Amino acid sequence: MYLKRLRDLREDNDLTQKKVGDILHITQTNYSAYERGKRTMPVEYLILLADHYGVTLDYLVGRSTDKA
């Protein structure tokens, strides 16, 4: 579930995988592996993305449907 949310939020904010990688200080290739579920994203990256997108961590990981 959270993989779809990662992609949806990125696309809703008109960001490329490279730009999100830049935000996290990682390569586009590494971010792509996280978004496709090939690697498990560290919690600290999830927290950074939740803050960046202005959503709760629970929303980002699929525990809630409430963004705020």
Describe the model.
The chain is mostly helical and 68 residues long. The chain has a single domain (2-60), classed as lambda repressor-like DNA-binding domains (434 Repressor (Amino-terminal Domain), Orthogonal Bundle), CATH 1.10.260. It is 62% helix and 0% strand. It has 5 helices and no strands. The protein has helices at residues 2-12, 17-24, 28-35, 43-53, 57-60. The longest helix has 11 residues, at 2-12. The two termini are 18 Å apart. The relative contact order is 0.18. The model has no long low-confidence stretch (mean pLDDT 95).
Provide a compact summary of the structure.
This protein has helices at residues 2-12, 17-24, 28-35, 43-53, 57-60. With 68 residues, it is mainly alpha-helical. It has one domain (2-60): Orthogonal Bundle (434 Repressor (Amino-terminal Domain)).
